[in-house]
UniProtKB/TrEMBL annotation:
<feature type="transmembrane region" description="Helical">
    <location>
        <begin position="170"/>
        <end position="188"/>
    </location>
</feature>
<feature type="transmembrane region" description="Helical">
    <location>
        <begin position="146"/>
        <end position="164"/>
    </location>
</feature>
<feature type="transmembrane region" description="Helical">
    <location>
        <begin position="43"/>
        <end position="64"/>
    </location>
</feature>
<protein>
    <submittedName>
        <fullName>Paraquat-inducible protein A</fullName>
    </submittedName>
</protein>
<keyword id="KW-0812">Transmembrane</keyword>
<feature type="transmembrane region" description="Helical">
    <location>
        <begin position="92"/>
        <end position="118"/>
    </location>
</feature>
<dbReference type="InterPro" id="IPR007498">
    <property type="entry name" value="PqiA-like"/>
</dbReference>
<keyword id="KW-0472">Membrane</keyword>
<keyword id="KW-1133">Transmembrane helix</keyword>
<dbReference type="Pfam" id="PF04403">
    <property type="entry name" value="PqiA"/>
</dbReference>
Length: 197
């Protein structure tokens, strides 16, 4: 973790001090927020488990249903990926499969495994180190929010042509976006510190 922190508003430099859960540091000069305490690992584990459940809901249930001239169809994420693969945009299908399914799934599983291992012990340190490196690599590539935005734009655009209804999968992706944002705001250095302890 960087030891110095600069106030974004008045450029005052501070030495970073450890905070208790729920506390936040403010600039003494201009009172702007500097940083807040990271979630404790048990709270992070709870968030990760919630993300796993929501990931399942988002992927099992259809995202949208479409009614056009009396015929109705609905699609899950994988239905959309299959459809994209079969049409002329195969690379897009691969990109969506990686960034909206495989990378977020790997991220949730790895983070859950690391947190459980730190809690219970029993996993080799070298494995944990590899897992933490992989988590850092996966973070920028997990882009559920981009998929969600694309799906919302499609729902609005298609609304002019057919009766489009959002389905539970879409709400699942919205909740997953929030949970992954919360998980990604966690400073991974904290887990390195837990590993060193
Ligand atoms: Zn300041």
């Amino acid at each position: 973790m960087p030891t110095l922190i600069v106030c974004e508003h008045c450029d005052t430099v501070y030495q970073r001090a450890p905070l208790q859960p729920g506390q936040r540091a403010r600039c003494l000069r201009c009172a702007a927020p500097l940083y807040r305490a990271d979630l404790a690992p048990p709270a992070l584990l709870a968030l990760t488990l919630a993300a796993a459940v929501v990931f399942l809901i988002a992927n099992v249930f259809p995202i949208v249903s479409l009614d056009l001239q009396g015929s109705s169809s609905q699609s899950t994420l994988w239905g959309a990926i299959h459809a994209a693969w079969d049409s002329e945009v195969g690379p897009v299908a691969v990109l969506v499969a990686l960034t909206a399914f495989f990378f977020p799934l790997l991220q949730i599983l790895l983070l859950g495994a690391v947190l459980l291992a730190l809690r219970r012990g029993g996993l080799r340190r070298s494995l944990l180190v590899d897992a933490l490196h992989s988590l850092r690599f996966l973070r920028p590539w997990s882009m559920v929010e981009v998929f969600l935005l694309g799906a919302l734009v499609a729902v609005v655009k298609m609304g002019a042509l057919a009766a489009v209804q959002p389905r539970p999968g879409l709400y699942g992706f919205a909740a997953l976006t929030l949970l992954l944002t919360a998980l990604n705001s966690f400073d991974l250095h904290r887990l390195w510190e837990c590993l060193d302890e």
